[in-house]
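Components:
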Amino acid sequence: METEHEPKGHEAASDDRVGFGFWVYLMTDLLMFTVLFACFAVLRNNTFGGPTGRELFSLPSALAETLILLTSSFTAGLGMLAARLGNKRQVLGWFGVTFLLGFVFLVLELKEFVTFVYDGNTWHSNASLSSFFTLVGTHGLHITFGLLWMGVTLAFIWKRGLDSHLVRKLTLLSLFWHFLDIVWIFIFTVVYLMAFLV
Amino acid sequence: MSNEVRIPKVGSHHGTVASYVIGFVLSLIFTLVPYYLLVHKTFGKNALIVTILVFAVLQMAVQMLFFLHLGREKKPRFNLAFLGSTVSIILLIIVGSLWIMSHLYHGMSAMNVTDKVVTDEAIYQVNGVQAGTCPGGTGKNYEVMMMDGRVTPDHIEAHVCDTLIIVNHDSPTRNIIYGSGNNTETYAGQPGPSIPRGQSAAISLTEPGTYTFHDKTLSTMSGAFTVTQK
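Structure:
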């Protein structure tokens, strides 16, 4: 006999609590990013005679990173739809693509960092670059953590199949991933686009 | 189906393929449009800043509605309420920081900003050093001679922004020491000048008060000047 798959009362309440708790974490994380954004906005022009963002940044590469991250957010969404239908293969497929896109994003970001440092523009150079590396690097760390989380969760799904516990993890993970996408939108706008204006 | 799973209600307000596709297309548009506007410098600088920020906020709205499914939460909307309070704190921090720091720029910044403030506000002394600007321009020049073991005249009465010129007619190089003794006191943040034979040194009189000076090796070779406000 099939039973209804609507969650029972206490389970639904527990899911709501977990969802809200994770949301509270995301919002406090957002506050941390806010402070880093404020630092960057205040210090962006204090280059101590060094090159400005306009001279350092490559707009096409920042655009590529943005498009990659937006696409990964989209594929994560499709992966969640598949998870709700209980389609393990599609979940692994879509989240596999998300993982790859996230990884390519991280490689592009690290490549940019390495280029800067190789040219002598490190976080030691001036206040502007310190705040740049802190802000963008913190986002990169979040992406790294998200990739680890995704890898582990996908490995579990691959071995054990989809169960409600893993789908819940996947749901929180996709919330986290969309959240990082939103933070990146503001990095793209405030750090990269604005560098060519201010 | 036996392998069907109970769908947790965490962030339970899921979309459809259609809503994800719409969200994705919108997010691409909201990325490419500001990029295009910026690269082709479509508007003036300020208009572009506002436009780009508006697109960032639109982009955020798309992500929140189509990917995070905010607004489809059932009441009470705790997530939305918490987002609201977070956004208000964010605005306080960002707007407050920029506002305060732009005002504090007067007091804490790079030399060129200090120079600008000095010029704008006709400040004639910064950190005890003559800034090169005097309200109403520099005043008179007073010249004293160092020769025959004495300073002539040995006392000068001057006003702020006047200039004292010390001429060394004697040999050898005269090292001017302010105050009494051989300790290096300063006037207006500067130690006394060294004046080679036959040359002179100009001292901008920016600090009011009475000061004495003498030669380092020949302390009887001394003079004084009194600076008063105009």
